[in-house]
Design goal:
By secondary structure, the protein is mostly beta strands. It contains no helices and eleven strands.
């Protein structure tokens, strides 16, 4: 099972990026999925999560109103693809962003992690 993230890169403060996470090896259409991030010298932290249906979303206070998580369970042979739209980016959003799926995502205990994609915001 793999979670493959893409969409990271270098952007100026105030700009936008859209991250994608495509699973392979199994379906996650019945599982919560989410995003975490880890900045240099800091612990990994929760960013956002979405329920299996997409009907419920959860955000860290630091990204509320700026980031939007969504998913499409019809893509990728119904294995689900999850997105993180990041707007009004700040220098403090610089981190490696990790996709997570299954298990207890909101509690920080998912069953699966992606390899991460780097997001760098220049001030």
């Amino acid at each position: 099972v793999q979670l493959v993230e893409s969409g990271g890169g270098l952007v100026q403060a105030g700009g936008s990026l859209r991250l994608s996470c495509v699973p392979s090896g199994r379906t996650f259409s019945g599982d919560a999925m989410g995003w975490f991030r880890q900045a240099p010298g800091k612990e990994r932290e929760f960013v956002a999560a979405i329920s299996w249906s997409g009907g419920s979303t959860y955000y860290a206070d630091s990204v509320k109103g700026r980031f939007t998580i969504s998913r499409d369970n019809a893509l990728n042979n119904a294995k689900s693809t999850v997105y993180l739209q990041m707007n009004s980016l700040k220098a403090e959003d610089t981190a490696v962003y990790y996709c997570a799926a299954g298990g207890r995502v909101v509690a920080g205990a998912p069953d699966y992690w992606g390899q991460g994609t780097q997001v760098t915001v220049s001030s």
